[in-house]
Design goal:
Elements: H1 2-7, H2 15-20, H3 25-29, H4 36-45, H5 56-65, E1 68-75, E2 82-85, E3 94-97, H6 99-102, E4 110-115, H7 131-134, H8 151-163, E5 164-165, E6 177-184, E7 189-194, E8 210-216, E9 224-228, H9 231-234, E10 237-245, E11 254-263, H10 267-277, H11 287-290, E12 314-316, E13 323-326, E14 335-341, E15 347-354, H12 365-373, E16 377-378, E17 383-384, H13 389-395, E18 403-413, E19 419-430, E20 433-436, H14 437-445, H15 452-473, E21 484-488, E22 495-500, H16 505-528, E23 534-537, H17 547-557, H18 566-575, H19 584-593, E24 600-603, H20 632-644, H21 657-690, E25 699-705, E26 708-713, E27 718-723, H22 724-727, E28 733-737, E29 742-747, E30 750-755, E31 759-760
Parallel strand pairs: 5-28, 9-11, 12-19, 13-20
Antiparallel strand pairs: 1-2, 1-4, 2-3, 4-6, 7-8, 7-10, 8-9, 10-11, 14-15, 15-18, 16-17, 18-19, 21-22, 23-24, 25-26, 25-31, 26-27, 28-29, 29-30
Helix pairs in contact: 10-21, 15-16, 16-20
Length: about 750
């Protein structure tokens, strides 16, 4: 722009020069992107470390010819020098080993790769390599004389070869490749802290500009060079930065400082950090969104007169004995249930879901915001809502004792839980009670309680057990994930204790009927809209995903894991039992879960019907309908079902395959990010709860490396990496037997063997 202004005979200066003249220039200059003019001088003096990228036309030709492959570049969380790209042409991901082969790709980038000759194929790494440790004393200012691979990195890779022997499945060579170009940079803003060793001690208090390293929280992201005049002020802070470029002559990407989130390890800074890392939209709802809410606010109620337009095409179900059963403290109540005996001996069951689509109209500001957020995010100490609180916790929430709009699915079931018929209707309900899981369980178990509401829950319980048996017989998987509840102080929200979540029959009761509703609605909206139904699928995992776990169970326990179908897998998981170790089966199920593909939302017209299948649930067709307060997918399913039963016409956006594909792509990312942010929140709070305490708990070895191991602690539902250097100084000697998954450790005051799947105390 400056050059353009010169040719136009106008006065013009660069953004950097303009900011330099402002009062707060020293701080503001850190936030200006490192422009091309700042980097261009280096190209004449710096050696080119990385290969140039191929042109787009060459990459397209190569991919079409099958000599190159496109995919997403992922870096190992345990070894920053090892990446992988999954491509359909190969059973296993292609390994990308070393800086030169990854060629400036950053985890998440969409890349084009070229497979290396077979004599260069290698086994995946068995060594933990952390950039922060390996390149601890790197010079952030070194523009000249850099090499792609540091001497420390060469040494670390050579040591790995010495320490490892044996040839298990994980020790066998697999195809390797190199990145020849980037199709799309998926750079985002990154959270991290300044490496104190990169700050020159002589300038910590000065305002002289210097280059420092930002170490990202995400260990898969390389160190980022930042030019700053406030290095001393930024030390010990949690920072937000962005990457500006990664040129061929720099070992590391170059970026700039955006803002400080606060002191490291403080609750506010760490919570905001995890929200930013997982791209959670946490800003307050803007006025345009709040303007879409009913003007009556909390005074809104279902109209008294049934001639009011609000009652149009709604069934009056206020006389039914409906209740909700949720986690303790739940205020955004999406679902409620009822059951009653019919004159013919069958049972009427109703699942009643909050009628969110009554309040959120397609394409208005609130709908657009909900579509962007995709889901409510649950952290230990807070909830980031998809919808404004007025709707989520009041007007839509199926609270007890008040009339609420609902979308009801009503079935006639036989006493054996076979479906006779299903009916879908908009309704008005009045829940009789809001139970927590434990409250409902106590009530069901108390035989002195023989009122109609309690007996209705008992009927639901009986049917849910039969529904679950049918699912399991069909091959549904009973998988596991570590779940704990962090108890916090009511006033400060500081962590007080960590408890493992107890599983109750009432939890299964709710789950079974939500699954039944989701499956029934999926079939109904697909029947009405075969090209644009919003559904959810779970692809069968490739057999290679289970290779390693199968081999580990066979070698360590003599157990066989069969994976030819979900039913075969479910049955073989049932046999993975150790009578002396009650937790062992759960541990194996957690490991099996990690071998699975991720479930995903999709538009029905983009897949053939056999691909609709939900592998984990053993269901031919599935969607999400039962949580529209907290999931956008469910809100879209409500709109499609409403049109399918002729309640209201369908908005054009839900008839466009292209628009629905865009919605699905976003909500798939948001759904996963919400899960990861929730887990990160639990990990942080568990860490805070244990801070300064010596706690003796049993753990289980989940993974073994040549220089460390991963331990899972059931009591706290978290896993942690233990490096050999954490055990003693100097770092103990070790020998890793990859065939038997045993790490022998010898050092000062330590002589032990660590084995995969074994207990460690």
């Amino acid at each position: 722009m400056r050059e353009h202004s010169i040719y136009s005979f106008l006065d013009g200066i660069s953004l950097r020069d303009y900011v330099s003249g402002l009062d707060d220039a020293e701080r503001l200059l850190d936030m200006v992107s490192t422009g091309h003019e700042q980097r261009v001088g280096k190209q004449t003096k710096g050696e080119l470390l990385y290969p140039d990228y191929l042109s787009v036309s060459k990459m397209i030709t190569g991919v079409k010819a099958g000599t190159m492959h496109q995919g997403t570049f992922n870096v190992s969380p345990y070894n920053y020098l090892e990446g992988s790209v999954f491509v359909p042409a190969f059973d296993k991901p292609l390994l990308i080993i070393g800086r030169e082969n990854s060629n400036r790709a950053i985890s998440g980038d969409i890349v084009v790769v070229e497979v290396l000759p077979k004599d260069q194929w290698k086994a995946p790494s068995s060594k933990i390599l952390e950039e922060e440790v390996v390149n601890k004393n790197d010079n952030a200012d070194a523009d000249e004389g850099e090499a792609v691979i540091t001497q420390q990195e060469k040494r670390a890779l050579q040591e790995e070869v010495k320490k490892t022997h044996g040839k298990s499945a994980e020790g066998r060579p697999q195809p390797t490749a190199r990145v020849v170009g980037i199709i799309k940079r998926n750079w985002r803003q990154y959270v991290g802290h300044v490496d104190k060793d990169s700050v020159k001690s002589s300038t910590k208090q000065s305002r002289a500009q210097q280059t420092v390293f930002l170490i990202p929280m995400d260990k898969r992201i390389p160190k980022i060079r930042i030019r700053t005049r406030q290095a001393g002020d930024l030390l010990g802070k949690r920072l937000l930065v962005t990457i500006d470029a990664w040129d061929r002559e720099s070992r590391y990407p170059v970026g700039h400082f955006v803002r400080s989130l606060g002191e490291l390890e403080t609750k506010g800074a760490e919570t905001e950090a995890l929200l930013l890392e997982w791209d959670v939209q946490y800003r307050p709802f803007p006025k345009t969104v709040l303007d879409c809410l009913p003007s009556e606010g909390h005074d809104w109620k279902v109209p008294d007169s049934m001639s009011d337009p609000g009652w149009n095409k709604r069934r009056d179900l206020r006389d039914l004995l409906i209740c909700s059963i949720d986690p303790p403290g739940c205020v955004d109540i999406d679902d409620a249930l009822h059951a009653r005996t019919l004159p013919n001996g069958n049972i009427e069951v109703g699942v009643h879901i909050a009628d969110v689509s009554n309040f959120v109209k397609p394409n208005n500001a609130m709908d657009q915001e909900a579509s962007l957020r995709g889901t409510t995010v649950y952290l230990v100490d807070k909830r980031i809502d998809m919808l404004p609180m007025l709707l989520g916790t009041d007007l839509c929430s199926l609270k007890p004792y008040v009339e609420r709009y609902a979308f009801s699915v009503l079935w006639e079931l036989t006493p054996d839980a076979d479906i006779v018929r299903a009916d879908y209707t908009k309704s008005v309900i009045k829940s009789r009670e809001a139970f927590a899981y434990e409250q409902a369980q106590i009530r069901v178990d108390d035989q002195s309680q023989q009122d109609d509401l309690t007996n209705g829950i008992r009927m639901l319980m009986m049917l849910s057990k039969k529904l679950k048996k049918k699912r399991m017989d069909a091959g549904a998987l009973n998988l596991a994930s570590p779940e704990v509840r962090v108890q916090t102080e009511s006033e400060t929200a500081d962590p007080a204790d960590v408890q493992t979540k107890q599983h109750l029959d009432t939890m299964s009761l709710v789950e079974e009927f939500m699954l039944l509703a989701n499956t029934s609605v999926a079939a109904r909206i697909y029947e009405a809209y075969p090209q644009t139904a919003l559904l959810r699928r779970h692809a069968a995992p490739p057999k290679t995903n289970f290779e390693e776990l199968s081999n580990q169970l066979r070698v360590k326990r003599g157990m066989e894991l069969r994976t030819d179908s979900s039913k075969a897998l479910a049955d073989s998981l049932d046999t993975c039992v150790d009578p002396a170790e009650p937790f062992f089966n759960t541990l194996v199920r957690i490991m099996a879960t990690r071998c699975m593909m991720s479930a995903e939302y999709f538009c029905s017209g983009t897949q053939a019907y056999p691909e609709f299948r939900h592998y984990g649930l053993a269901s031919e067709i599935y969607t999400h309908f039962t949580s529209p307060i907290r999931r956008y997918a469910d809100l879209e399913a409500h709109r499609q079902l409403a049109a399918a039963i002729d309640y209201e016409p369908l908005d054009a956006s839900l008839l466009s395959k292209a628009k629905l594909e865009g919605v699905c792509k976003n909500i798939n990312v948001r759904h996963r990010n919400a899960q990861m942010a929730g887990r990160a929140s639990v990990e942080y709070y568990v860490g805070q709860a244990l801070k300064g305490r010596v706690v003796d708990e049993d753990g289980f070895i989940m993974r073994v490396f040549s220089n460390g191991f991963v331990v899972f602690v059931p009591r706290f539902g978290i896993e942690g990496l233990i490096r050999l250097r954490d055990l003693a100084t100097p770092e103990p000697e070790s020998e890793f037997d990859t065939e038997n998954y045993v790490l022998k450790i010898k050092g000062e005051g330590i002589d032990k063997s660590v084995e995969y799947l074994s207990r460690i105390g």
